[in-house]
Amino acid sequence: MDLVISRYSFKYILLFTSTSQCVWLLVFSQTKRDWTEFILFFLQTTAYISVYRSRSEIRLLLKYISRLSKLLRYNGRQNIFRSSVLIYCIFTALATVILELTYYYSKIRDTEHEVIRNSSFIPEILKCFCMVVRDISFGMVILGLHCTLVSFPGFYCFVCKYFNLKLNEFLSTSKILIVQKDYRRIFKIYQELARVLTFMDDFLCYSAFVFVLCGMVGLFWSICSFILFFDFDYLIYFCSFVVSMHYLMMMQMIILPASDINLGAQMARDVIISLPGWFPQQYDELKIRIRRGLNKKIGLTLWKIYKIDKSLFISAIGTLITYGVLVGTHKNFDFWKKKNVPFVKPYPFVGSVVQNLRRPLHDTELQRYQELGKIYGLRLRLPEGFLNSLCWARRLS
């Protein structure tokens, strides 16, 4: 019985979270943040289902990788992986706990409770119960997102790192085997490496694509949220920062190790193609053997669409941060406009200063500038007296 519960507990969590999120979106949701969370949760759930259905392939992959250790010499750096996996699990578990606590003490929870209290769809008797269910549901969303965020990127990263270590061992071993004129062993090791890498990409490419896509969406929306939260709840700022760092780490753990593998696979292919030049007596035989399939380019991809390289990480980070800041600033401006804040220009103290100094300033206009000074002083973290002094200097002139 305990085995059955432990085996299906995460599935029950996903089912409960998906159902409660759908009810919240249909009945109570008033923000786009809820839809973004649901989309991310849905995409990561599909990736989890894809990985869960590939359990037998994962076992075979681990067997194939262990077989590579017999073909290549032992490297002492392999002992680092155990401690790295342990540190990674502890760090991500602490991040999950911090996010859970941040939500329960932030204003997001109070806002959602206020929405439930003001709802006309729920009887007064059930409102307290709905608040408790919402707290549990949101906690399950964080738990479900981070369980999937932790498990697959961690597995993908460490498998890629280990396989990249084997590629480096192949490159160093091939130089020794060329001196020993043992090209048959070089072909044997490369064929095994190519077979394992192709097998790995066949069933992990979709999950890698989904998690990179979720990382981009999550990073974009966390940057927007960092700009959009204008009530100065520093817990929300901290939560947005932690979430953005988590999604950034997830993208990094998928893109950078996979790009290293693709670079190492290209270098290994170059070694195979150069073998006929090292063995001119067997030139024709080696050429025929290479053309039978060993000259094919291998590597890790995103759903067989895009071959992973490091430029994807740099371009994605720059684009997402830039557009996140722009969209967040635009939404922030719309918010203050709906509040009937008296905007004259985006910043009234910047621009035609000489013309403003020549024109007399009325008391009502001075009061308006002082109100704007308080608003911008808070939003830009500028001293309030600095903006007021500009208004008084203009009046005295």
UniProtKB/TrEMBL annotation:
Q: Where are the transmembrane segments?
A: 12-29, 35-52, 85-105, 136-159, 203-228, 234-256
Name-wise, this protein is Gustatory receptor
What is this protein's gene name?
Answer: AVEN_142535_1
Keywords of this entry? Membrane, Transmembrane, Transmembrane helix
Its domain of life reads Eukaryota
